[in-house]
Amino acid sequence: MTEAEAALDTPYGTARVAWTRAGGELTVTVTVPPGATAELDLPIEGGPAEVGAGTHTFTGALQG
Predict the structure, then answer these.
(1) Which partner from 2, 17, 43, 62 sits 20 to 30 angstroms from 49, CA to CA?
(2) CB-based contacts of 41, cutoff 8 Å, min separation 6
(3) Residue closest to 59 by CA, chosen among 35, 14, 28
């Protein structure tokens, strides 16, 4: 697979994630609803990240 996306209705609002993979690079975009946080464990340099409400994009070379 080279891309996927999903959404989930939560008590805080809709959470979304989408990713694309091209040429050994991964781009992940997540939307966290207001009042919530998300912990991301991505297979790119920098490892896990915790983010708050809003839309966040991470891009990096795939690890492993």
Answers:
(1) 2
(2) 47, 48
(3) 28
Nearest Cα neighbor of 2 from 20, 15, 14, 17 is: 20
**What is the C-alpha to C-alpha distance for residues 4 and 21, in angstroms, rounded to an integer?**
9
Token code pair at residue 43: 């297979």
Structure tokens at 20: 């694309």
pLDDT digits (tens, 9 = 90+) for 10-55: 999 999 999 999 999 999 999 999 999 999 999 988 778 899 999 9
Q: What is the pLDDT of residue 16?
A: 98
